[in-house]
Amino acid sequence: FKSVRLLDIIIDLDGFVSFFIISAFHLSYNMLLNQLRCEEGDPENLLRNSFFQFQADRAIPDLEKQIKSLEKERNSMVIEEEESLKNYYNLIFQHKSLKKDICEIVFTPKYCLPFLLPNRAVCLDCTNDDEEQQSFSIEDQDTWGVIMKFNKVKSLFEDDDNRRPEDANYTVDVLTRCMVSKDGVGKKKVKAVPIKERGEPVVVTVPLSQIKSLSSAIMNIPKDLVPLEARENALKKVSELLSRHPDGIPLDPEVDMKIKSSSYKKTVRRLEALENLFEKHKIAKSPLITEKLKVLHMKEELTAKIKSLKKTVRSSTTLAFKDELKARKRVLRRLGYTNSDNVVELKGKVACEISSAEELTLTELMFSGVFKDAKVEELVSLLSCFVWRERLPDAAKPREELDLLFIQLQDTARRVAELQLDCKVEIDVENFVQSFRPDIMEAVYAWAKGSKFFEVMKIVRVFEGSLIRAIRRMEEVLQQLIVAAKSIGETQLEAKLEEAVSKIKRDIVFAASLYL
């Protein structure tokens, strides 16, 4: 079976392909408010009769069958000294977790950037991620290499120009020993391997999280590493360093890197205490310890699957989205859209009419007076942030008056998102705020001012169709806002919004066909 969304086209008469339709039903504040506004409206009844709920109910027998099968498989696994082995197994994963926490502190840009110097020897983690080769040793597999340079990673959502260097993300180019192969489609795959194993000297890009330690040794290697011989000689020098100093002369995080973090010291103490437990643990010297740990790992994975399936069954037997419904009702009450009896208030009546943009942020802006104070062209420009989601790398910063409006929008969006998070609605506050893009504000402002379409296209570098679609969507949002303003008796705002429609609804953007 192929899985598709409910709204996807699923007809394939020639191939007789069967499709399993997955409901894309989700709750929205507009839907919830319109249900509450109706005298006979019942959001819970809507959820109960949704296709999503039907699918959840129908899946229960198969889930229960899977649970029984997995429980039978788990119970067939008998392990000697299981309790003691389980304790040792948990210690291993605690040890890995603590080491990871220490690396995350040490290799934050704030501390490590000054030490990511070219030609410095570096230790990298090259542990195999394959489930079948899961490591149950407290010593991870590592390799060594030489730093070439570090690179700042550009973010898709955030404004990189305004970020401090220590708050950005970085990768490091490292010359190290690698196994080079090709996958089924001929794509080149490069995997770092221990420096003494067979492989090619290759420069790979790794995240900071893959670095285990930095050496105090700076290698004397040539600048031109294009020839294979030069790269081999560079890694030979690293091997010579390790033969004389097996630990690679690592930088001390506290002494050399000046890390004074209390969380770092606390984590190091916990790791040292844990390592003492390993030495005293009676199961550590048990025969076939690795094989036993592998079987226990499989058993623990089955237990986790069973637990997950049981949770799915429990949630399926209750009303779908019930917790989300409660959380969203709580948001509406706290924002003043409904009262304690779930009766829709004035703000709620406005949000009821908005379905083509983010209704809460838009309503909050309307009631804060932003729409009344802004000029018509500025208002239209502000609405472009609600319909444009694409980030344009070379977009010009909006003029001062538009930028001030955008800052007000961001502040309102952040307040709305943080309140939702406080009410237990699952939401990423930063992503929500960054989803409002100012990239076409200037272009839309010029269009509302009466500029020709070819003139507007010189302001912003996007496809003509993308800009036309955005302006058409803005007109749709404006029509909904007009209805909303009329429903609460805001005649002045209604007239302003109608003027905004007349300013953008013209010429080629709203032509019935480009070929007429």
TrEMBL record:
This is DExH-box ATP-dependent RNA helicase DExH9-like. The lineage of its organism: Eukaryota, Viridiplantae, Streptophyta, Embryophyta, Tracheophyta. InterPro entries: Beta-barrel_MTR4, MTR4-like_stalk, RNA-DNA_Helicase, Ski2/MTR4_C. Keywords: ATP-binding, Coiled coil, Helicase, Hydrolase, Nucleotide-binding. The gene is LOC104704462. Residues 339-516 form the ATP-dependent RNA helicase Ski2/MTR4 C-terminal domain. Pfam families: DSHCT, MTR4-like_stalk, MTR4_beta-barrel. It comes from the Eukaryota. Transmembrane segments: none annotated. SMART domains: DSHCT. Residues 53-80 form a coiled coil.
